[in-house]
Structures
1.
Amino acid sequence: MSDQPLTLTRHLLTREETTTPPEDLALVMERIAVIAKRISRKLIHATLGGHLGYSGDTNVQGEQQKKLDDWTNQTFLEVFRHGYPVCSIVSEEMEKPTHYERNCRGRSYAVLCDPLDGSSNSDNNGLLGTIFSIRERARGHGFDASDLLAPGSRQVAAGYVLYGPATQLVFTAGAGVDIFTLDRELGEFILWREKVKMPRRGTTYAVNQGNASRWHPGMRKLVEHMTSRKDKASSYALRYCGCFAGDFHRILLEGGIYIYPGEVLPDGKVTNGKLRLMYELAPMAMVAEQAGGRASNGNVDILDLTPTDIHERQPIYIGSTEEVTLAERFKPES
Ligand code: AFP
């Protein structure tokens, strides 16, 4: 490690390129870093501590909650209770935003999050993540989230934490993508890579191929195209771990594409897939674009979509420019 480890907070306070005041970003990210450290520590002790399995509750999406889903969501709420200048939390696990009036002074922000991404991996020691998006609240906003229903291009910052062999925090505030690794002895996120660039083309694709019988014909043709190359050098390998943050991280560093398409139901109705626009897709799209990659719903760039609901879902094609542009050519969603 370098003799002069650059911590997340110092890095944020000493850069000049963002339009959002660096002090605000540092205050918000200090809270997110505390949450990430708490989750990282909890996960290390989760197996022997009896924190695995289902809680018996379902979330707003009708999905069964794991004990860790609930715990990580509560951790967000506890830590941001004293989280000025963040006055609202929007989470996958809560139907409505939680609002902290005491933090609402002057310029204020909302944090939108998937507290534990890939939670089905929690019972098998697999990869897990936390995805976050930071948006500035409109002056005079109310208790609801209506002012937040704006395109992802309005995010002021976004990123994710990946709990793997190392805990890493990936962050962008619109001036490139930086990756920090948690030094457990120091208890600090230390800058590992600055202004990361995603390769223009990759050699892997990530998709739940078990759903293929419900894909649109265009989506099936796309995967057929990607897997039909005879020469090994230009063919794609399938890599899918069931944690968006984990699959995306590989693509950020090595290139390729992650896909979660819409599905055609037996009655012919078409779904928007599984992933949520505001706290899963928009933040990852901001990271992808800032690293030189792309994110599309098959027709429109993810960052141009205006959500109509905080829990809206959209199909996603995200990763290297070449693969996302190739995917769009197959019109996978029509
Ligand atoms: P959770 O955030 O509810 O755990 O869902 C994980 C996820 O949204 C994403 O991280 C995975 O890539 C995707 O779902 C996996 O879904 P399938 O099990 O349908 O492949």
2.
Amino acid sequence: MTLGLTTAGESHGPALVAIVTGLPAGLSLDRAAIDADLRRRQQGYGRSPRQQLEQDAVEVLAGLRHGRTLGTPLALVVSNRDHANWEWGMSPWPPEGEPSGKGTKPVTLPRPGHADLAGVLKYGHDDVRDALERASARHTAVLVAAGAVAKALLRELGIEVAGTALEVGGETGEQAQRDATDAAKGDRDTLGGVVEVRATGVCPGLGSYASREDRLDGRLAAALMAIQAVKGFELGDGFALARVRGSEAHDEIEPGLRRRSNRAGGIEAGVSNGEELVVRAGMKPLPTLMKPLDSVDLATGDAAQALVERSDVHAVEALAVVAEAAVAWELARAVKEKFGGDAIGDLVAAHRAYLERIAWPRTP
Ligand code: EPS
């Protein structure tokens, strides 16, 4: 059985929910490790005041007993503290009493770059809020919780996954990034950036060239491109490889079957090759600007300015954590497909037997 992930939840609704299926039984989960990832996602210079309201923590409703998985669906919940301010506006049932708090008036000013316009047209909503609530990157909180579970599984096989922010607003140095963030904030503008995720301890042979949907490169690209605001994906040297000769593009094989370089980023033909996995994602500037862009009021059809709401200046450090979770999830899924196992010990034993067959790691 492969791993499955289904999520639900709106940004200002009561909670975000994830159901993880296909986990082997007996996997130990550490609540503090999951909560630490949730906190990492909330940090970063340039985040909105919303992050002071939320103190994300995971609750588990099913699939776990005394910290160990049962081999049954795992139900994870991350509550939205801010919902207390939206109880009327985001009430799942018709609200009772007089309108109060936030979200009581329909939003009719779609933001260029957000889901607002496409969402109301596609689903026939009158209130842009009905589209933006689910499209919000708040959703990534529960993906990070699921990613922390995936990282626990990968750790059993000696695989570690880590994401970092490389660039914010085109700047690489920490101080320059802060200055760029302050400047954008002063101009009531937003920034994007680039993040990188690396995974070590990945054996050769995850993913397959046998069919399109099994390719690990395609799966990682889909996983990262599906994160809010991500507009670009690179594996290894990525676009730079398009500009060099073949003699400078590939990773020559040495005795011991290790590579002299890692331009491929650890994947060839959609299959991991045993080198470090290296992927990057490019994030566009966030579409909620304090100095709004031109738009149209959907109620009147007249030219107007887009919705102005509390927003992050950028969320690049948060993306590094979310991208790490997404890569961990895809690797865990590929691992589960290759090695199977209803009990974690079965999976670990199958992995060990495979490494013995291919004699990995080899010494030259
Ligand atoms: C988001 C808008 C902001 C962000 C939010 C994503 O939320 P709000 O409109 O409530 O201020 O803070 O991200 C989170 C809440 C989070 O936890 O990451 C958006 O429109 O995507």
3.
Amino acid sequence: MAALQPVRGTHDYLPDDSRAHRAVEDTAREVAERFGFGEIITPIFEFTDVFARTLGDTSDIVTKEMYTFEDRSGDRLTLRPENTAGVARAFISGGLAQSVPVKLFYRGPMFRHERPQKGRLRQFHQVGVELLGVEGPLGDVDVISLGYQLLDALGLTGRSILHLNSLGDPESRQVYREALVAYLSGHKDKLSEDSLTRMDRNPLRILDSKDEGDREVVAGAPLLSDHLNATSRDFMERVTGGLTDLGIAFEYDPKLVRGLDYYCHTAFEFVTTDLGSQGTILAGGRYDGLVKQMGGPPTPGIGWAAGVERLAMLRGEDAVTAPRAIAMIPTGADVESEALKLADRLRRAGFTLDLGYSGNMGKRMKRANKINARAAIIVGSDELAQGTVAVRDLDSGDQETVALSALEAVLVRFR
Ligand code: ATP
Ligand code: MG
């Protein structure tokens, strides 16, 4: 019954999972708002061209991972594999260039047809930010610092390290590209098929290859850092200077690339050693060429994206707990409607009330324990006649008689 299984690489998030998931998203949005980034919600599908043209036709995402389909009107659409292209599209089509700098936060599902494994899904979720219209390195510092503060808020700065590189300006990259191709041409016999096709169109991506043979060749390749011109070096120094001022530690990683042509200057990743080879938790860079390449006004940009599942997994299962409920326990059918009204009153006052719906008192008490309720309100007809109920602290077992009028005041300590 394949149809009754979730599609490979997709998951249902039951309440405990979704709570941990939402906590990451909410924290990210709060931190982003502290930096002045407002949320943008773009469609989860776009015209295929939005991704195909911007991610480049040699990238893994475009060649192997996109969910592309033709809809009933014959439009070629793609479920978004990432959201920078979608945000840039919205920036252009929404005429946002008038109001730069534009600071945007997003969250939501992304889709990639990858080989599923722990921390690698086909529908996964990202939180991310894009800063558009800022040319100088202060933008890079602010955006990286936003990522750092998010990891800090999640308690993860001690378990991850910032890797940083400069891809230089277009001039530096051109010079480097020639040096790299000259070097790689001497080792064609050892390069993978993929890398051979990348050689003409996007040789920088070979630096990022996971193929063994490629890696051996790459180990001896010239370094981009040796080909940076003065402008590029100065830019990099101002970024690292800003990070140092903020006390954000980083490791210089000369092999870190974002292979796409529109990336320049700063490239960075926060990496953890706790998730095996799925260790990149937050990755980004500067993409000054993107908006222009998509047909918009030349606009510099920088941003990052982080995988929500990986962040939630790193934090562990105990990081977020559900609020503990108060169980409403009528002792008999004659007081059920009073109990219901009382629950209604307390919920309106902001308390978390669990109704058992049926069963005798013993059964309802059992359920209260099973859901780890913090307290129980026991409603009996004699007590009600006197305007009271019993409130039991389920942690200590202590029970007291409480006047209906004082209920909210007494329950505050069980919130
Ligand atoms: P990787 O090297 O792990 O494939 P990537 O370079 O494809 O990562 P990006 O496109 O930069 O990743 O996406 C940013 C973040 O999104 C990643 O660091 C990761 O946390 C998360 N991510 C990417 N792909 C997946 C996936 N298939 N499942 C879960 N999370 C993912
Ligand atoms: Mg990938």
